[in-house]
Design a protein that fits this description.
20 helices, 13-stranded antiparallel beta sheet, alpha+beta, disordered C terminus, 800 residues, disordered N terminus, Immunoglobulin-like
Length: 800
Amino acid sequence: MSLPKLNCPVDLILAAVNHLDFLKSCDQVPALRDEGILRQALYRYQHFWLPLAAKHGQSGTLEAPLDIAWIWHCHLLSPAAYCSDCVRLLDDVIVDHSMERNEKARKKSLQEAKLIWQNEYPDDPFEVELNPEAVIPKYRDGRTDFSYDIVSAAGRQKEFGYQVEIKPSFFFLLFLHFLLNLMIMICNINLIYFLMTPIILCLFMQTFCTLFNWFFVFFLSAILDSNMCLSLDFFLHPLAYKADMEKLYGKIFNHDDSAWREVFNENFANYGAMYRGENPAGKLFKLKSDGILGMRTKSAHLVFDRVELKAAPNVSGKSKLQICTATNSKQVGVIAKLKGSERVWQEKSLGSVTFDTRNVNCLKFSLYECTGWAFFGSKTLVAETGFDFLSVIETLPIGQSSVQELSTPRDSNLQVCVDFKVNISSVKKGPILLFLKAGQYERAIMPENLEKLWGPIPLSRLPPGTDNWCEVASHKVLNHRGTALFTCRLIHSLPLMQSAVHVFCQDKMVAVGHLIGTDQLPIPTQVSKRAAAVTLNPRAGERAVLIKNHKGDWAIVVGRWTGYRKGVPGVAGKRGSRGKRGVPGSPGTLHLKIWRMETGYMQELILSYDQKIYSMILSGAVVDLKAGYVLIEDNCDDVAETLALAFSISLLHVLCQPRPKGWEPYKSTQPAVARGMRNVTAIPSEDLAFVMAAGFLMSTPSNHYVRERYGEHACAGCGGGGGEVEINDFADIDCGSIGGADNGIGDDGAMGGGEDGAGCGGCGGCGGCGGGAGCGGGDGGGGGAGCGGGGCGGCGGCGG
């Protein structure tokens, strides 16, 4: 029997790309989730749009306004119902639809449709305000007659755009072309269910490619992405779809997801393509622009025109009034030194300075009594007072200048008071400074089914009767004035294998970060352009955090520990032969990739732990992990998101850094302070404020925990908080304690005493030099004879 050929008249590649753009535009309008808006659009769709499109759209499909376009889209996803409804409501006319037009053509078609609409329906608006409070009752409550519940379908479809939002595979045209060919192949071999199960195409493709060893070439993470888009795009061209289905199978199918296992006897799931939870857009609070501006430091140029000493103790000799900028009581810079016996100084410019609240917060006035002459003279502090000038600067609008006449408060002890007149010119905004004030971790039960506790984080359900015990801490984040602006909550759940970051402004949750796994991200072997794609490699110990704000997904951060190396012990020198240099161990460092979802920008960072640098430069911010300090630049308004990013990076450090073998939570990981006279090189994680705040010593779903619980070859990151762990090659992650960085060649006696030598080998990170005897000295002695006469080679990894 000859197989039917599918000559598809639709450019599905172009349609898929345009379809994604359409879904994105709908996702950006939260009102399209409101039932009143949807029912209003449904009425407009049946009574205005379909008759209009049937009458005027046969020569070329018209572009609908967004609310109607969304209802039309949802109706088209049930092809049999759509064709049936069109035939019944429009006298046997099936209105065609197209996703093949580019942006310019769509705008032109939209204008044409608007003119036709205004001519046909002069009393009814073409576009309506998409605001639930502005719904027109006669449209919302009007009668409609469809065989398919389109409003319910819209409720189901509202999440689809979010499911494909982080899949860059859509835009790899090589993949789309390959997928299209497979779709046609499936049609040609007469798999009758292919359009009933559009998402089966991905796993069919994976199986097909694996057989031909093409697995590494193509992007296969598409259960909910490209193949679905291609199949849905076929539905969105109803005349072409109807003709092809009737030609192939004699009837039209609605799409259904039930036949995959029946046809292929394989699991439906695939990496990076599973359900991602509900769209978080609108579930988090948005910081207002004026609120963000109030968090910023400010600066202005000050010119002092008049200074009067209103009250001060009597000075027998010459007096000098010194004006300085200061931080609290600490002097920063001198503005002016006013001398003479007068109590009033008045000139055009007595002194000037740029007052930047990033560095200083007050003015300091100091009255000195001067005696003697020149180098033989002396000065004595008589009285001192200060003025909180930060409050003056930060109450002035940006760009505004002002002349202020001010007075210092009267000091109850020194009885000094100063009046001064100052010109303040052109107030400028500066960066935001945030300082971590860490809280304590506590154990608490956090039910996984309460979104008000967790925020927009998709969580699996634990077995009945299982309590979700978590490690929870709340940390304050202060601004440059010492005011608590944010509260950051860290949560670690071993039952859920989930860690989360919550950022609150007052009592409003404004940003969230949580672990995700290969349920949402593809693995590297699934992509053709690895540098451009967001991937996760659990076998290499990679972990990923998804950060969300009021708009939805804000960034994805993937971290892994790289450069970890066991030390190789040196060979002890013997009489007549030199010792062999040991290879130093390395504690490694954190390697990060940060994808910004809105811009598509990817930043790659390898933290400079080996150089004892614990700060990093991010896009629009600087984070100091050790000092617990964040600087957000004056052109960056993503304040809460950047704070969530700082904690997410710290969380990845906690989850990825190797621990000593057998380490248990709440115990220190720090190695011995010294070996002989040499310091042991290790990352001072317990001295890094952000890392400790992220739970470094707590019970967390870290790579170390996974390895200790599930074995040497286990890896985390596969379940993304779903509690799943894949047993795979764990590479060399977490394979013992951290080695040192010394060269391993020791001078005579450099190894220290035998007791110190005997302790070597216990850490496991040096390659097991075995202690003093292993260093060539039978008693572990440090002398030349004990080391074989040639000097101890050292263990390398332990810093010896």
